[in-house]
Amino acid sequence: MTDDTPNDPQDAIDSQGERRREELDDRIFDHSAGDEQEGIPFVGAGPGNPRLLTVAGKELLEEADLVVHAGSLVNSELLDEYCAHAELVNSVGKDLEELIPLMRDAYEDGDNVVRLHSGDPAIYGAALEQMDALEHEGVPTHFVPGVTSAFAASATLRTQLTLNEVSNHVAFTRPQGKTLTPEEDHISDFVEMGDVTTCIYLGTHAVRDTMDRLLEDEHDPETPVAVIYHASWPDEDVIIGSIGDIADKVEEAGYRASALVVIGDAVTGAGYERSFLYGDWANRGSSDSSAETEASDD
Ligand SMILES: C[S@@+](CC[C@H](N)C(=O)[O-])C[C@H]1O[C@@H](n2cnc3c(N)ncnc32)[C@H](O)[C@@H]1O
């Protein structure tokens, strides 16, 4: 579809959703993540440091004629370094009605178009609705993963998000607000589970409210919390505290956005036990290959 008539993106989303319910996309079996594919790639820029962009992402950016990027969380250093020859468009403040024809028309004119999201596009990226709207208009799209900010935050904290005997699970979540109702906010449930590392996106402005709710729900005020502002950026800042005092510290620092909040004992990395992988499993030899495979996934 190449005419200028604006197609309603909601119709496109509904119809692609319907298609997905009815049949699997053949491309799932034809391509792996990281493969070269036709169409517009939705690339994860990583958390900020240009060195944390994938090789595939870098190659696509270097060949791009048009890069539509996700505003301030995509580091301008990365754009300068890899997109010197491309036209740059900031997607902030643009709705689907504007973004879709922009990308579609450039693609149909033969340009290499890259849609660049911060971190990984699959985490709070609202990528699929853009992809569905483009696909509906005959423009193929695909994901190119990136390093999500929770992974940069754990690297900065020099810890693991999962740790034997400390944290068996990781929750990527966000606090209640315009998008989530209080009933859909599960932060307290994750903390209640005890062995979950809770990574809160889009919650810097709401640290006080979030911690107050956790205290109301009688969670241990000493539970470790870290707030990592601009993980991997030159002005990265790390604030370490607990459910009881982190809000004061974040307010003192003045951060209202662009930070990741991590709750749980994995923040300090204290108290973990050595894993089976480099213990009993390692000494078992190769007699039980399925057990080995499972152990080496640890
Ligand atoms: C719209 S979400 C996008 C998340 C992104 N897709 C990702 O995978 O990291 C934006 C939120 O991600 C978090 N975020 C993104 N980049 C960050 C960074 N470098 N350091 C800390 N938090 C970051 C913040 O919580 C921010 O409010």
UniProtKB/TrEMBL annotation:
<dbReference type="InterPro" id="IPR014777">
    <property type="entry name" value="4pyrrole_Mease_sub1"/>
</dbReference>
<dbReference type="InterPro" id="IPR035996">
    <property type="entry name" value="4pyrrol_Methylase_sf"/>
</dbReference>
<feature type="compositionally biased region" description="Basic and acidic residues">
    <location>
        <begin position="16"/>
        <end position="28"/>
    </location>
</feature>
<dbReference type="InterPro" id="IPR000878">
    <property type="entry name" value="4pyrrol_Mease"/>
</dbReference>
<dbReference type="GO" id="GO:0009236">
    <property type="term" value="P:cobalamin biosynthetic process"/>
</dbReference>
<keyword id="KW-0949">S-adenosyl-L-methionine</keyword>
<keyword id="KW-0169">Cobalamin biosynthesis</keyword>
<dbReference type="InterPro" id="IPR014776">
    <property type="entry name" value="4pyrrole_Mease_sub2"/>
</dbReference>
<keyword id="KW-0489">Methyltransferase</keyword>
<feature type="region of interest" description="Disordered">
    <location>
        <begin position="1"/>
        <end position="28"/>
    </location>
</feature>
<dbReference type="InterPro" id="IPR050161">
    <property type="entry name" value="Siro_Cobalamin_biosynth"/>
</dbReference>
<keyword id="KW-0808">Transferase</keyword>
<feature type="domain" description="Tetrapyrrole methylase">
    <location>
        <begin position="40"/>
        <end position="246"/>
    </location>
</feature>
<protein>
    <submittedName>
        <fullName>Cobalt-precorrin-4/precorrin-4 C(11)-methyltransferase</fullName>
    </submittedName>
</protein>
<dbReference type="Pfam" id="PF00590">
    <property type="entry name" value="TP_methylase"/>
</dbReference>
<dbReference type="GO" id="GO:0032259">
    <property type="term" value="P:methylation"/>
</dbReference>
<comment type="similarity">
    <text>Belongs to the precorrin methyltransferase family.</text>
</comment>
<dbReference type="InterPro" id="IPR006362">
    <property type="entry name" value="Cbl_synth_CobM/CibF"/>
</dbReference>
<dbReference type="GO" id="GO:0046026">
    <property type="term" value="F:precorrin-4 C11-methyltransferase activity"/>
</dbReference>
